[in-house]
Amino acid sequence: MLYRVEGIVIRSMDYGEGNAIITLCTENAGKIGVLVRGAKKVKSRHAALIQPFTLGQYVFFRNNGGLGTLNSGEIIHSHHPVREDLIKAAYGSYACELLDRVLHDEETGSFWFRQLSACLNALEEGKEPGVTINLFEMKVLQAAGYAPQLGACIACGREKPDDELLLSPRLGGVLCRSCRHNDPPAMEVSMRALKLLRLFAALDLTRLGNVDVKASTRDELKKIMRAFMDTQLGLRLKSQNFLDQLDKYNI
User: Fold this and answer.
1) In angstroms, what CA-CA distances link 45 with 51, 52, 71, 159, 229?
2) Residue 41 and residue 36: Cα distance in Å, rounded?
């Protein structure tokens, strides 16, 4: 059966001699694997279609589910500037790998498609990559059912002033100081970071503007979101290790 989908390449791997298998996050057909014959050969007309972050229209044959075989394709947006910049590519790779690990095959992907597309567009446009990725992570947590509770205390349910709140990745939200015994390692959080986390929870990535965030707050947000991602999803991603190396050398 012949399929025509609009999708973003979230993974590309060599297969056999000169072939490649790409994983697409599509708007209406979930996550799909497609074999692209001859894509790695010199002067292949399909070479550009297998590049990471590429948004394109893909036409492929597939029988009874499983792997499809590409018939033709057309690039809609290559996201070339993201691939050519080390920092942007690192964050883009993390977003794609995260989505690949969270999104199951054939799972309806309209929400994920829109968020990933917005994330890659924001990176290409030069918006702060750390803030962009933290917002993307928040959308992933929400869609996966692990949205942090950022209003009332997650233990007692009472609303407290922001300066009396801590963050508990283990419990999944804010914790008042009276309830700290429920999670002694709960994290301190600045009022500025907490306000931004609430903004992330309410904001769709497609509406992200230019957010001016101090370096210290960016570092705090990165630490907080990393704690929530590690605790709630427990994923170990190769791209995250690379981002950690960039941080280590202040790149």
Assistant:
1) 13, 16, 11, 59, 39
2) 11
Q: Name the residue among 58, 94, 96 with its Cα closest to residue 74.
A: 58
* Tokens (6 digits) for 129: 């990559």
Q: Which helix (H) or strand (E) holds 76?
A: strand 68-77
Per-residue pLDDT reduced to its tens digit, 116-166: 999 999 999 999 999 999 999 999 999 888 999 999 999 999 999 999 999
- The three-class DSSP label of residue 9 is strand
Does the domain at 1-78 match CATH 3.40.50.150? Answer given as no
- What are the tens digits of pLDDT across the range 90-110? 999 999 999 998 877 666 568
pTM over 0.85: yes
For residue 127, count CB atoms less than 10 angstroms from its CB and return exposed for 0-12, middle for 13-18, buried for 19 or more: middle
As a whole number of angstroms, the distance between CA 223 and CA 26 comes to 31
Tokens 């990535």 found at:
205
β-bridge mates for residue 26, sequence order: 7
Compute φ and ψ for 7, nearest 5 degrees.
Answer: -150, 165
Where does the chain hold its CATH 2.40.50.140 domain(s)? 1-78
User: CA–CA separation, 111 vs 213, rounded Å?
Assistant: 26
In CATH terms, is domain 87-102+127-251 a member of 1.20.1440?
Answer: yes
List, by residue range, all CATH 1.20.1440 domains of the chain.
87-102+127-251
* For residue 35, pLDDT beyond 80: yes
